[in-house]
Structure to design on (588 residues):
């Protein structure tokens, strides 16, 4: 019950009791309460005129880094005896330091600043309304209002630095980079030998090969290193992810996509990102820091979703990818997508699959029951079989047990080119 | 400042009620009120708001009961005003405590105290004026006034809610 309600009831209780018993003292006892309520009514706040501005210490931060939110409330109307401002936090944002509300008394033209820090997981968070409560000194007469102070913070995924991502696409671009181009020329890695041509540096002469021939000198040839086109395909279909409570396999997939994109962009490649789930979210190919920001922004907003049109990977828009480029799929691959990968290989794409392991993830977070153990073994066998089939069609498969850090996995599995297992 | 007001107001309400009960020989009630008043002060010192509403209700209830024992109105009205001041000050203290961030809280307390003094004075003045007015009231008229009071209560609460 509000204070106003309590006082009103007491007044009327005393009044009714006084009249019913015809006891004048009871009526007299109600008078101080009436005086008190009258003061509240008399000083009840009129329409207030408040202006609110919101600012953040940073609007793009990595996950787990606190952001200071500042709300400045300026009173453009008459004196407000008691003002309570409470900010509405978007879902998923929690207050790290301070409090998202303030109590103040604001004279005309005065302003007050509410400051607090928030932290949140990866995502894009929109702040909008805040609740304002204006009352007189006793807090008996209150006016509630919602004021708009829009703002947005983007919490980027955690990016782990990968030393190398060993890819060998069939086609590279004209610019120099770090990807072996399958063409002889200036470079570091030995590629082959050819006849000496005037102008070749003498230190390139292959003495052994030249000694075998009486008439011709031979020189070493190196493999050119170029930049290339890479498309990172992030599978955000709900049916292909595992969520247990607040933990989701998607977070690992996003982490891998961010790390791989970062590593490839740093080495001068042109990188694109496609999120395949409820809809197609396509970040067009690009180079450099701006592209990194675009990709990270897209990854920050990555959410699981379902759609009939994109229920399986067969509807992947292959025409978006530059011909014979490198594709990096990040998918837990719960469903069977062999046919798609066969098609991609047939069209000349080099494909790498980084697959966060759903079985170990689920097993890690589930109670350890004997029946679970048997189920886990069967599921593991099925998955191994599926991944082996993909390896046999020339897909570079990286099975990621998410209990292992990505950097450790990268040292083991991403730093050397794929091993091709021919089909039996 | 606020705490001092709360303790003084509780002490005054307790004193007035205890003396009133003691005058008519209701020593048990006086002792109960003394105990309750001390407990209220103790809890307020521990920053607890728990007894404030109960304190106000009991003070008004005790004053109403005391009016049937033939005690004069003035000490009872003073007790009710003191309990009201204690309750209202305790509410403000609780509100200030519940906020980590508050701006110009000293000015807010000062204004609150001044407003409370004026409200208390208005109560005293109204009481004194009321004591001068003596109207003979028949039972039928009393009943009509009760009905008007109930309708007035409902209408007023509805109007206040609509305004907000």
């Amino acid at each position: 019950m509000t204070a106003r309600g309590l006082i009103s009831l007491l007044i009327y209780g005393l009044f009714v009791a006084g009249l019913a018993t015809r006891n004048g003292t009871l009526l007299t006892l109600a008078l101080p309460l009436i005086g008190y309520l009258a003061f509240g009514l008399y000083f009840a706040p009129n329409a207030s005129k408040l202006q609110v501005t919101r600012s953040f210490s940073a609007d793009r931060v990595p996950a787990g880094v606190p952001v200071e939110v500042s709300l400045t409330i300026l009173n453009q109307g008459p004196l407000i005896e008691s003002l309570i401002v409470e900010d509405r936090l978007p879902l998923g944002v929690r207050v790290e330091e301070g409090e998202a509300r303030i109590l103040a008394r604001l004279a005309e033209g005065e302003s007050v600043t509410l400051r607090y820090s928030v932290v949140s997981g990866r995502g894009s968070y929109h702040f909008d309304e805040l609740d304002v409560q204006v009352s007189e000194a006793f807090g008996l007469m209150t006016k509630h209002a919602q004021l708009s102070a829009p703002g947005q913070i983007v919490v980027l995924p955690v990016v782990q630095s990968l030393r190398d991502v060993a890819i060998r696409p069939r086609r590279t671009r004209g610019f120099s980079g770090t990807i072996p181009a399958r063409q002889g020329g200036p470079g570091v890695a030995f590629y082959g030998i050819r006849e000496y041509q005037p102008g070749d540096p003498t230190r390139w002469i292959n003495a052994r090969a030249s000694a075998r021939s009486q008439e011709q000198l031979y020189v070493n040839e190196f493999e050119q290193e170029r930049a290339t086109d890479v498309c990172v395909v992030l599978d955000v279909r709900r049916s292909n992810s595992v969520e247990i409570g607040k933990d989701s396999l998607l977070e690992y997939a996003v982490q891998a996509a961010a790390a791989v994109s970062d590593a490839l962009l740093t080495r001068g490649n042109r990188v694109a990102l496609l999120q395949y789930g409820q809809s197609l979210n396509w970040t067009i190919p690009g180079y450099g820091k701006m592209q990194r920001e675009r990709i990270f922004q897209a990854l920050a907003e990555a959410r699981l979703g379902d759609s009939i049109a994109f229920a399986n990977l067969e509807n992947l828009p292959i025409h978006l990818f530059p011909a014979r480029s490198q594709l990096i799929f990040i998918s837990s691959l719960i469903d069977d997508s062999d046919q798609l990968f066969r098609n991609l290989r047939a069209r000349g794409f080099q494909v790498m699959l980084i697959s966060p392991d759903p079985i170990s993830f689920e097993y890690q977070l589930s109670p350890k029951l004997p029946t679970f153990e048997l189920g886990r073994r069967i599921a593991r066998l099925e998955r191994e079989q599926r991944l082996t089939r993909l390896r046999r069609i020339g897909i570079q498969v990286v099975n990621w047990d998410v209990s292992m850090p990505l950097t450790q996995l990268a040292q083991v599995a991403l730093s050397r080119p794929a091993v091709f297992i021919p089909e039996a | 400042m606020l705490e001092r007001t709360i303790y003084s107001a509780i002490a005054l309400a307790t004193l007035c009620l205890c003396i009133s009960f003691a005058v008519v020989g209701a020593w048990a009630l006086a002792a109960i009120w003394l105990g309750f008043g001390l407990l209220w002060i103790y809890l307020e010192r521990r920053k607890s708001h728990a007894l404030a509403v109960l304190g106000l209700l009991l003070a008004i209830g005790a004053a109403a009961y005391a009016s049937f024992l033939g005690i004069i109105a003035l000490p009872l009205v003073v007790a009710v005003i003191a309990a009201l001041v204690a309750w209202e000050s305790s509410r403000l203290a609780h509100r200030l405590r519940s906020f980590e961030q508050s701006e110009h809280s000293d000015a807010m307390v000062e204004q609150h105290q001044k407003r409370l003094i004026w409200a208390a004075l208005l109560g005293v003045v109204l009481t004194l004026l009321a004591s001068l007015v003596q109207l003979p009231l028949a039972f039928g008229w009393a009943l009509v006034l009760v009905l008007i009071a109930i309708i007035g209560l409902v209408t007023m609460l509805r109007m206040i809610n609509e305004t907000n």
Observations:
- Residues 2-97+109-133 of chain B form one domain.
- Chain B has two domains: 2-97+109-133, 137-164.
- The beta strands of chain B are 102-103.
